[in-house]
Amino acid sequence: MNNVRGLCVLDVDGTLIEEEVIDLLGKEADCEEEVVLLTSQAMKGELDFETSLRKRVSLLKGLSIDVFDKIHHKLHFSKNATQFVKVLQENQIEVGLVSGGFTDVVKKLANDLGIRLFTANQLEIRDGYLTGNIKGPVISKEVKESTLLKWADELEVPIDRTIAIGDGANDLAMLKRAGIGIGFCAKEIVKEEIPLKIEDRDLTKVLNLIDFL
Questions:
Q1: Which pTM was predicted?
Q2: What are phi and psi of 23, to 5 degrees?
Q3: Are 96 and 115 in contact (CB under 8 A)?
Q4: 126-144: pLDDT as tens digits
Q5: Is 200 a catalytic residue?
Q6: Does residue 104 have an active-site annotation?
Q7: Residues sharing a CB contact under 8 Å with residue 92, sequence separation 6 or more, in sequence order
């Protein structure tokens, strides 16, 4: 018998963690300023996410894959993230990560927290170096929404027992579709459209907004 009582899907960059990974990668590739600007425009909804992402990834061409271990050690979980995930899991609420970032980083973060469900963009690698291209489909706002629905279906969780948490324009579709959509330290475009908001970077504050815990 399925004992999963709910599903919580989190965005990663700026939500689960404090940093934007691609901005850190941009710093490693000596193009931080350009990457940060493109990230900001995408998160505010001023630039199409996929266009922005492909531009940013192209600037990373030539980086060694060793950079992912280096970046992983520089990341900081949002306050009480570990405790938040633990409380959900203890209450039979499955946690999933859906990220416009990269599998090479998100997989490590998921492992750190004991999370088995995650999806992110796959960077193309050749001979141990980034080619500047993305392999497969981009994790767009539509893909984030469809991933929420797919996981809920697989876990036999009704949509009203799903939670989505995110901060940027790329999260809006899943925030609107979930039973409980929460803007977490969100950009203005999200604040305008999502009524439930957490302004303090403490994930345990989200627990007060979940009515089926």
A1: 0.96
A2: -70, -40
A3: yes
A4: 999 999 999 999 999 999 9
A5: no
A6: no
A7: 3, 4, 5, 6
